[in-house]
């Protein structure tokens, strides 16, 4: 239960910090933080949770990460479902808080930082570009996570590497899909947007999981003695 609660609060912080920065601060007139600020915000959420709750649950904060760690032989199959449920619920709770804040000035939520492709991609990128982006970014994210948390890796630096990796991923891919690499993050925002966000949600669940699974298998092979 403590592990599941840690995943709930960790994912809550990731969605509130990352999506909150996109919804509230990215386009603020004259002094907004822009895409770079949003990318840094997502990285900071992972960095801070890794060092505050990582010793309790491992700070997955992401169903794709949980599945990728399982594929890499680093996580028990019996814990997968409780972790994923906790992550999704944490993300939805954060989106609910963000919704109440974002509508506090009488405005509509707009796209609410939901992930999308085609006309709902920030840069107008199509389906194939979105699939490639989400697959490759999640694959590399898991390679970094598996490597940084390996028993042979330098101790105490995993959170920094993982946080910076997520920042870099957002710097690359926000224009393409608004960056998911995390089904819990995508589900939480899509529920409040509805309509197109729900109809395109399949991509941001299936593709990141596929990328994570392949990364787990590949890293397991690379580490094989």
Describe this structure in words.
The protein has 225 residues and is an all-alpha fold. The protein has helices at 2-25, 34-52, 54-57, 63-71, 80-102, 127-148, 158-177, 183-193, 195-199, 201-223. It has a single domain, classed as Glycerol uptake facilitator protein, CATH 1.20.1080.10. The mean pLDDT is 95.
Give a quick summary of the entry.
By secondary structure, this protein is mostly helical. 71% of the residues lie in helices and 0% in strands. The radius of gyration is 16 Å and the shape is globular.
Produce the secondary structure layout.
Elements: H1 2-25, H2 34-52, H3 54-57, H4 63-71, H5 80-102, H6 127-148, H7 158-177, H8 183-193, H9 195-199, H10 201-223
Helix pairs in contact: 1-2, 1-5, 1-8, 2-7, 4-5, 4-6, 4-10, 5-8, 6-7, 6-10, 8-10
Keywords for this structure?
225 residues, mainly alpha, Glycerol uptake facilitator protein, 71% helix, globular
Here the CATH topology equals Glycerol uptake facilitator protein
Tell me, what's the shape? globular
Low-confidence stretches: none
Number of domains: 1
| Element-level helix/strand string | HHHHHHHHHH
Distance from N terminus to C terminus (CA atoms, Å) equals 35 Å
Radius of gyration: 16 Å
Largest sheet, in brief, is:
none
User: What portion of residues is helical?
Assistant: over 70%
Query: Can you give the mean pLDDT?
Result: 95
- Helix segment count? 10
Category by helix and strand content: mainly alpha
């Amino acid at each position: 239960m403590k592990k599941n609660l840690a995943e709930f609060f960790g994912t809550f912080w990731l969605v509130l910090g990352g999506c909150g920065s996109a919804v509230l601060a990215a386009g603020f007139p004259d002094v907004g933080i822009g895409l770079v600020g949003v990318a840094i915000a997502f990285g900071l959420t992972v960095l801070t949770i890794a060092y505050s709750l990582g010793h309790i649950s491992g700070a997955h904060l992401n169903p794709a990460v949980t599945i990728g760690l399982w594929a890499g032989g680093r996580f028990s199959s019996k814990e997968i479902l409780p972790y994923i449920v906790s992550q999704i619920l944490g993300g939805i709770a954060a989106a609910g808080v963000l919704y109440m804040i974002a509508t506090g000035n009488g405005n509509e939520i707009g796209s609410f930082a939901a992930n999308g492709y085609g006309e709902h991609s920030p840069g107008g990128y199509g389906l194939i570009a979105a699939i490639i982006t989400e697959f490759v970014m999640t694959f590399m994210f898991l390679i970094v996570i598996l490597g940084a948390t390996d028993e042979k890796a330098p101790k105490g630096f995993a959170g920094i590497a993982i946080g910076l990796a997520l920042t870099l991923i957002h710097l690359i891919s926000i224009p393409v899909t608004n960056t998911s690499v995390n089904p819990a993050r995508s589900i939480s925002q899509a529920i409040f947007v509805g309509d197109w966000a729900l109809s395109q949600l399949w991509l941001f669940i299936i593709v990141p999981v596929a990328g994570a699974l392949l990364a787990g298998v590949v890293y397991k092979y690379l580490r094989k003695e």
